[in-house]
Amino acid sequence: MLLTLAGLYFLQGLPSGLLAKAVPALAREAGLSTEWIGLLALAALPWALKFLWAPWVDPMAGARAGHRLRWVVWAQLLVTALLLVLSLLERPLWFGEAFPFLLLILFLINLASATQDVAADGLAVRWLRGDLRGIGNGIQVSGYKIGLMLSGGLFLIANDLIGWRGSLWLLTVMISVLLIGIRRFPEPAEAAAPFPQRRGVLWWWQRSRDFWWRPGLLLWAVILLGYKVGDGFGTRMIKPYLVDQGWTLAAIGRLDLVASLVGLLSALLAGVLMRRWHYRRALVGLGLWQGLAFVGWWWVARGDSGVLAIWAVSLFEQAADGASTVALFVVMMAYCRPGSEGGDYTLQASLQLMAVGVFTLASGFSAGYFGYAGHFLLAALLACAVALLALAWRPPLGPGVTGRYTGAPNHS
């Protein structure tokens, strides 16, 4: 089960890394301005809007076995087809005359990946109960980060070795091979309902409204909106900054590869420790760590820092990102209702990604106006402000849900 989840999120990370990790560096090397690189986040819009179709991805009562996995397969088949389309033209054309079509293809890749994410999240929330949620989310984030590593850092390195087309073909082969193994996993059928179920706009609205109408969800919504904003806002400009410092794509790829590996290990460790950590302390402490990491990037960008300083800050930032992401995902799972796991998780994820997306769109303008150092300092302030806001938040309570996984009373 855990291995299947790792594979599902690895698949999701492959195309995501292309947009989040590789494309900003490729675009900057091609001469695109920081403003345009920030606006590339428009291609990730489906991640913020996936709550609109998420309830239809969740299986109805009585659905036959393999419902969510079928969504995964069709979504990844679309991704592989689009990667093959990207391989039809050389890289300079995509970042030149064909740039609008590149944005469209990246948008469709994100649409397919976001839909797969709804299905994968539903499986994860359904399978992971009690003590498994900490390690499960650690594996989930780690699988995703491995995908990011391969399509981000290794993709940039592979561009120097086997070219644009060869790199895309390699990604396509990896997705296809992994998809064959995941498709064989037995997803059980849903229990039959005692009465017919109808799905429509009114049903969708009532389901969404009832989720947010519960006590304590207002402050949680505010935390969701801002918790990863500083991270997304700051991270978008790291690759352009390195390109402007004279780093080659291969050097950036090596840095990203090692830093992502550190983030992966940090996520696994956080997954284990979340069994003992109190939710609130975890969110506050790890959020402040994320803010401190961008103070490091501010320090690097304000002077002529050496290669070792950049490596140290990058590893520190990725470790903070991996741990804080696991903590956020664990709490999001705790708020999900039985029977609507995928939809509830997606509602929260979409709210979080919507805020991150808006700030990411503005990241290029921020870097252009304040400079890289000022931009990274602003990202640090955003991260720390929301982390401190979590001090006033009370963790969710419910059957099997306390402030942490021990089953003890709430420690708020």
Report the structural category: mainly alpha
* Top CATH class: Mainly Alpha
Count of DSSP E strands? 0
What count of structural domains? 1
**Overall outline:** globular
Helix content: over 70%
Second-tier CATH architecture: Up-down Bundle
Largest sheet: none
List low-pLDDT spans: 192-196, 398-412
Mean pLDDT: 80
CATH topology: Growth Hormone, Chain: A
Question: Rounded to an integer, what's the Rg over CA atoms?
Answer: 21 Å
Question: What pattern of helices and strands is seen along the backbone?
Answer: HHHHHHHHHHHHHHHHH
Taking the alpha carbons of the first and last residues, their distance comes to: 32 Å
SS field, number of helical segments? 17
Strand content: under 5%
Relevant CATH superfamily: MFS general substrate transporter like domains
Keywords: Membrane, Transmembrane, Transmembrane helix, Transport
GO molecular function: acetyl-CoA transmembrane transporter activity
Main location: membrane
Protein name: Transmembrane transport protein, putative
Short summary:
With 412 residues, the chain is mainly α. The protein has 17 helices and no strands. The chain has helices spanning 2-29, 34-39, 45-49, 54-57, 67-86, 91-94, 99-127, 132-151, 153-183, 201-212, 217-226, 229-235, 238-244, 249-273, 279-301, 307-334, 341-389.
